[in-house]
Amino acid sequence: MTGHGTEEHPHGADRLCDAGDRVYSRAVRRGRVPRGDAEAVPCLLELALLHPDPDDMDWLVPTAPQEVMTRLLRGLYDEVSASQRRVGSAVEAFEWYARLGGPRPRAAAVEGSAIRVLDGLSRIQAAMDEATEACTTEVLTVQPGGIRPEHELTEGLHRALDLRGRGVRMRDLYTHVARHGQGLINYLELMGGAVQARTLDEVIERLILFDRTVAFIPANADRTLALELRHPALVDYLVTVFERLWRLAIPLTAPLPDTGIEGISHREQSIAALLAEGHQDAVIAERLGISVRTCRAHIARLSETLGAASRTQLGVRIAQVGLDGPPRPGDAGQIPRLTLPDRGSRTVR
Questions:
Q1: What average pLDDT does the structure give for the chain?
Q2: Is position 73 within any domain?
């Protein structure tokens, strides 16, 4: 989109420029247009009249003219008392959109509303704010990564307090590492019983569910693209995933279980299990929400505690003491204990 800025398209959705008129009309007639067709008319993306096709990001699909009319009406409602002239202009624009918007296939209409690509942080935040305002009963979230930065918690605090004031209940899933962040502890104390939090060794990618009717998930690695999902089957599936993780998770107020092996922490047990699966340090660090440096420090401690002189030997020791998988319920008393008779020799029994 280089060479074209918003200053070259000083208009709103109620009166498109000639170039925008042509591209948008073509998109409505054909169902979609190549992304390159919109490079000269960034106004169509900025006004959300075109958005990426969920099935092929190289194509853009149009927002239905009927939806554009609804959006315009909502925005104009608050302005009617200040400017009657805008009302007349909007009516003319509605008539123009109405002429374009012929009957659409039912399947296309359902797909367009069920999966929406949100391109850019501002558009993602706007959609999240809209879902937050409409939420009435419950918010479920999965928050991957490590310790939550305090500035992130502070930025979302006003929304969380507003939800609490409306009686909305919240449940959050974090990695175990998040337990070490004082900011999270302070946030939960401030929210009181409105928020429940549990932790796991590792969780899925970020997920936010409102009232079990709309979900948001990232669509790329740097989270500048997101998907807004409203298809009942997709949302129900994500709710099921959340509920199963929730049952496996440990309440933030409860201590992590003991490994049953002297000198091995819960985190080192998790690292050992992932090492046994053949994962590299960077992958293990990302899945557990810790830095690569911290991960390697724990691996060094594991090697020292288990008396392993190499990665290969460490894998053998991990299997010998039963760290190559999660402990089974009821087996805590049967886990073999590592004994260290002296600094020169180490045996496993």
A1: 77
A2: yes
Q: What is the pLDDT of residues 286-310, one digit of tens each?
A: 888 788 898 898 888 888 888 888 8
Collapsed DSSP state (helix, strand, coil) of residue 218: strand
- Those residues with Cβ within 8 angstroms of residue 214's Cβ, 6 or more apart along the chain or in another chain: 131, 228, 229, 230, 235
Q: Is 204 exposed, middle or buried (0-12, 13-18, 19+ CB in 10 A)?
A: middle
Residue 24: closest CA among 68, 87, 56: 68
Half-sphere exposure at residue 144, Cβ-oriented, CA atoms within 13 angstroms:
15
Q: Are residues 161 and 236 in the same domain?
A: yes
Q: Are residues 167 and 120 located together in one domain of the fold?
A: yes
Kindly state whether residues 245 and 327 are assigned to the same domain. no
Domain match, 198 and 270 both: no
Phi first, then psi, for residue 39 (nearest 5°) are: -60, -35
**Residue 194: which domain range?**
116-251
Q: What is the pLDDT of residues 308-343, one digit of tens each?
A: 888 888 888 888 777 766 544 434 444 444 443 343
> Does 301 map to a domain?
yes
Residue 86: band (very low, low, confident or very high) from pLDDT cuts 50, 70, 90? low
Asked if 49 and 24 touch (Cβ cutoff 8 Å), the reply is: yes
Is there a domain that residue 318 lies in? yes
Domain at 334, CATH number: 1.10.10.10
pLDDT of 101 above 70: no
User: Is 172 domain-assigned?
Assistant: yes
Q: E strands of the chain, at which residues? A: 33-34, 50-53, 56-62, 115-119, 138-143, 169-175, 195-200, 207-210, 214-218, 225-229, 250-251, 338-339, 347-348
List Cβ neighbours of 274 (8 Å cut-off, separation of 6 or more): 283, 284, 287, 288
In which band, very low, low, confident or very high, does the pLDDT at 238 lie, cut at 50, 70 and 90?
very high
Q: Do 191 and 123 belong to one domain?
A: yes
Say yes or no: 147 and 197 in one domain.
Answer: yes
